[in-house]
Amino acid sequence: MKTIILAAALSLVASGAFAASCKVEAGDKKLAGAAMSSFMKKCETDAKATCDKSAVEKKLAGAAKDSFTKKCVNDATGM
C-alpha cells in the first residue's frame, strides 16, 4: 500500500514524462557497475531530449532555456 502511495506521489511531482528519477529506477532494477553507468547515461540522454523539447514548447531561449533544461535534467536523473 505504501508503495502505491509513493508511486502516485512521485508521478504527481515528476517533471515531463519521468515518473521517477533515473537513480530510483536503477536502484529498483538493482543495477551496478557497467550496467548502472550505461543505464544512467541513456537515461540522462533521454531526459535531455525530453527537456529540450519541453523548453522549445515553452518558447524558452538563452539563459532561461539553459536554466530550465539543467533543472529538468537534474530532476529527471535524480542528481
Please tag this protein with its features.
mainly alpha, single chain, 79 residues
Would you mind describing this structure in some detail?
Helix 3 runs antiparallel to helix 4 (62-77). This protein has 79 residues and is mainly α. Residues 1-17 have low confidence and may be disordered. The chain has one domain. 76% of the residues lie in helices and 0% in strands. The chain has helices at 2-13, 22-28, 33-57, 62-77. The protein has 4 helices and no strands. It is elongated. The longest helix is centred in the middle third of the chain and has 25 residues, at 33-57.
Q: State the major sheet.
A: none
Fraction of residues in helix: over 70%
Strands, count:
0
Number of folding domains?
Answer: 1
Strand content: under 5%
One letter per element, helices H and strands E, the order comes to HHHH
Structural class: mainly alpha
Mean pLDDT: 80
Helix tally?
4
Q: Note the overall shape.
A: elongated
Q: Terminal Cα separation, in Å? A: 27 Å
Uncertain stretches:
1-17
Q: What is the strand and helix layout of this fold?
A:
Blueprint: H1 2-13, H2 22-28, H3 33-57, H4 62-77
Helix pairs in contact: 3-4
Q: What is shown here, in short?
A:
With 79 residues, the chain is mainly α. 76% of the residues lie in helices and 0% in strands.
